[in-house]
Amino acid sequence: MTTRPPFLTTRFGAYYHREVPAEDAELTHVGPGTPCGEYFRRFWQPICFSDDLRDVPLRVTILGEQLVAFRDRRGSVGLLELHCPHRGTSLEYGLVSDRGIRCCYHGWLFDVDGTVLETPGEPAQSTLKDRLCHGAYPTHEYKGIVFAYMGPPDQQAPFPIYDSFERPGYRIIPGRKYFYPCNWLQILENAMDPVHTAFLHTIVSGSQFTDEFGKVPELDFVETPVGMIYIATRRVEQNVWARMVENVLPNLQQVAPIWEDGHREHPFDGPMMSRWIVPQDDTHTMFIEFRHVSETDGVTPSWWADRSIMLPGQLPADDSHEASQRRPGDYEAQVGQRPVAVHALEHLGATDRGVIMFRQQIRRGIRAVQTGEAPEGLSQKAGAVIPTYCNDTIVRVPPGPTPEEDRQLMRATGRSLAESYLKHPPSMTGVTVPR
Ligand code: FES
Ligand SMILES: [Fe+2]
User: Fold this and answer.
1) CA of 114: how far to CAs of 73, 248, 310, 378, in Å?
2) 229: domain CATH number?
3) Looking at the predicted structure, is the pLDDT value of residue 432 above 50?
4) Predicted TM-score (pTM) of this structure
């Protein structure tokens, strides 16, 4: 446990604030054998895009492990320990072969499951290759992303299919992959902190989304069977706009469209993006996106289907540090929390309810794995489509008589929509969104 430093109550008191407590290792450390690392290893994790695998191997770091990914000439995808079991050369310099990958140093050949197929320098009668395996993880490709299961082989969960990935009238395209030099948790928490869209993305950096995002919303947070959502409700003339953004345990975010403005009534309308926040190690994190693009012209802005274009505010200003200071976005805000944010130094307020709820969910999952139980949100049934809850819904609800009554009305509207979705998941199949 960490000790809390003195809560400063005197002016010019920094002298009394010397002690920097340790980060919460249970929630943030992801290497092999750590509580959170074991938790993550129960869930399939994205490794790279399918089209990252070309004729040279791809070196990746995931959950503190050094690995190499490749697609052999038969088309099978491998994810192996980086260092050759012979004398340790990195397989990132290996030769992608007809079957498996061959080490560049002495030519040992490894299949995608770690079988040692050839040890060419050894005598013909050598049984060395039959007596060992190289470390390998199972992989699964889905809609342009390569996923891996890095947990205990006897506990491999079915690959999860979320309903938003199979939404009628929409196609999934691989989006962008990008990296932050900080811990995974402070990035995921950001999605459960909707106040920052009204400040960081609107007031500080000019309107990065629609102007309506600049109104501080009424906020509520609700647990779902797979994680949690925030419900941000805003008044837009005669409408209430309920925006629900979702964290799916442990590290998938679904984000409602940033082009919504709340002016036109519509029912449950799903995410623009599903992205995983994948820990590479304790202080480096990879984002990897699926983008949701409508097959109907004019519904999704055309820039969103262009993989070269980023969501605004996600990367550091490219020209200079001063430019970052003048227009900070998510990158500056989250990386600026330290390489691993120190929870014992925080002073959480009323708007941090979602952050607290999310940390509790993660901690419950970590402790469930420690006691041998299945963590919340783990897929249980192969082939089942799992409901998710990210959406915008715009309903006509004229304003209440006073500002306070109107705020209550907005909250009640958001709550009752969320409750109805939890009871009868829209599951998107069969849900038609009139445009
Ligand atoms: S180090 Fe890889 S084959 Fe010798
Ligand atoms: Fe943001």
Assistant:
1) 16, 31, 37, 26
2) 3.90.380.10
3) no
4) 0.94
